[in-house]
Design brief:
mainly beta; 4-stranded antiparallel β-sheet; 38% strand; Immunoglobulin-like; 76 residues
Length: 76
């Protein structure tokens, strides 16, 4: 597989990683991106796809709120 990850917050694509050629099923990107979250209830989507010549294949995706990933309560 040649996977890459796309991060979308509130319907806006925030980050797309580099394609990891030949990374198989356990890729590691070690990439960072910054985004100011104004509301913890905003929907976040993480999608992993496999790059192909004509049409990329969706491998899997996760949709959740930003707040559901937080380990401590914060102020909204």
């Amino acid at each position: 597989m040649d996977p890459y990850l796309e991060l979308t917050i509130g319907g806006i694509q925030i980050h797309k990683t580099t394609v990891k050629k030949g990374a198989g099923k356990k890729p590691r990107w070690n990439e960072e991106c910054a985004y100011a979250v104004r509301h913890m209830g905003v929907e976040m989507k993480i999608a992993v796809s496999d790059e192909e010549v004509f049409n990329d294949d969706l491998v899997g995706e996760l949709t959740c709120t930003v707040g559901s990933l937080c380990t401590e309560e914060g102020t909204i």
